[in-house]
Amino acid sequence: MFSLRKKVLALTVLLVSFALMSGCTDYKKKYNSLNVEHQNLKGLYDNCKSTLEGSASEKEVLAGRLAESQAELERMKSEMAGGKSAADATGFDGYDVDVNAEQGTITVTLPELILFDSGKAALKNSAKGNLDEIVNVINDKYNGRLIDVVGHTDADPIKKSNWKDNWELSSQRALSVLRQLNSTGVPDNRLRAIGCGSSRPVAPNSGSGKAQNRRVEIVVHMK
Predict the structure, then answer these.
(1) For 116, what's the count of Cα atoms within 13 Å in the CB-facing half-sphere?
(2) C-alpha closest to that of 14 among 217, 213, 220, 212
(3) 114: burial class by Cβ within 10 Å (0-12, 13-18, 19+)?
(4) In CATH, which of 2.40.50, 3.30.200, 1.20.58, 1.10.3470 is domain 1-83?
(5) CATH of domain 84-223
(6) pTM of the entire structure?
(7) Do residues 221 and 121 lie in contact, with contact meaning Cβ atoms separated by under 8 Å?
(8) Lowest-pLDDT range of 67-71, 125-129, 149-153
(9) Which of the pair, 91 or 19, is modelled with greater confidence?
(10) DSSP state of 156
C-alpha cells in the first residue's frame, strides 16, 4: 500500500499534468478529469484527518494541494464557454457531473477513494456527508425522478478480497450507496442498484485510468 507521501506525490503529478494541458480545447473533458483527481485528493484528505496515517507536515502538504486543485477548478470554470458548468447548473456543485440531453440523464460520478477503502464495499464515514449533500439536491430539485446507482470497477481481477469477481464488488458498492440514499430520504420506489464490473471503463486500465474506472455513478432520469 502506498504511503500518504507517495499518494500525494502521485496525485500532484496528475494535477500538474492537467494544469499544463494548455493546448486542450475540450474544457469540459479537461474539467471533468481534473475534478476526478480533486475528489480523490478530497477523499484522501478527509480520510487522513480521521486516521493516524501520515505526519503533520504531510497532511499540511495535502491540504495545500487540495487548495491548489480547487483554485485550478475555479479558474477553469471561468474559462469554460456557455456560462455555468454542468455541476452548477444542475445543483451538484463541486462534483463531476455529466448532462446527456438526448438520454435525459444527469450523472454524478463519485470516485472510489471518497467512498470506499480498496477492495471494500462498506462506505467510509466521511463519504456519508457527500451523499447527504447529493440527497439534499435530489430532494430539492429532482423529487419524483428515478435514480440509478451504478457501480464500476477497474479490470484487475479480484485477488486479495473475498469477492467472487468485479461484478459482485461493483454490485455491493452500488447497494451500499443506494442504502445510504434511501436511509436519508430517497424513497424505495425511485431507486435501482446496478453493478457493471469493469464492463464500462471511462479510461485505460492503467495508471490514473484505474482510479477513474473505480467509481459509482448516481444517475438522475429526467424523462
Answers:
(1) 23
(2) 212
(3) buried
(4) 1.20.58
(5) 3.30.1330.60
(6) 0.65
(7) no
(8) 67-71
(9) 91
(10) P
